[in-house]
User: What shape does this take?
Amino acid sequence: MTKRRRSTRHGRARGGTLALALAFAAVAGGLTGCGTGDGGAGHGPFQRVLDEQAAALRAGDRSGYLAAVDPRAAAYRSGQERVYRNLRSLPLATWAYQVTDVARHEESATVTARLRYRIAGYDRVTTTDTERLRFVRRDGGWRIAAEAADSDTQLWEQGTMTVVRGAHSLVLGVGRDRSGLRRLARAADRAVPAVARVWPGGWSRRTVLEAPSSVADMARLLGSPASSYEGIAAVTTGEAGGGAAAGGSAPADRIVINPQAYGMLSDEGQQVVLTHETTHVATRHQTTRATPMWLSEGIADWAGYRASKTAPREAAPELARAVAGRRPGG
Assistant: This one.
């Protein structure tokens, strides 16, 4: 199973100065368009339930959305009520499912489906994630009773979500106060024109930021252990090439904020981080997996520190030590 969130870039906070860590790299898959109907033998009943729920969400029909949920699954139903409210706060251009596998028993089934969605005005491509849902037969029909293991985790499933719109940014936060999210939006709004001055074309000049409530929740979003993000202030998700090689189906870019490490930075450090990460968003369509890490990270560093008062020796202490220690012929 592939996950969109594994291709990343990192901003690391160290002792009041900023340094940048190397990225994780992996393949992220995706599909575009809206497929409905029976995708295989026995898929039809489950595809219909998901199609009806997706249509209800797009139409703003809360009762129709919850009609897909097992009325006896009280905890799951309560969570889905919150998910519905969260999703309705987003400008969704696309929201659709395609059932790909059904493991069916007599009165229950585990259904694997591709969730495809796009945020209008921000996403240039449709993102595809994997949902695994447990269905039960209820009153002669099939209803969703729970989310099964190995589903991709979404921010809107982690709690009540607050959405703040900036001039160039959309900030989604869970467990974060609105004033803090507004500060994030202002910093993101400064980062976009700063990056546009050094990388003017080939990108939307808009960013989407996700601000989970904890490092553990950040790790669940990114599908890695929480220890992987110790001291890392932000991660940019997406795929090199921006979908050019995959027919425009690469994951949309998200800047995911580590509430602990990002909060430890000074205002200038936070601005450097967001400008660095925004550079990855801007350059994604012009890079491939063959692009050297030193080049992609170097451009992002240069853009991030370009307007900073931080001296080069402070911005890149390891490099400064390496240059200072170099001898002719060494």
Observations:
- Residues 178-198 form the longest helix (21 residues).
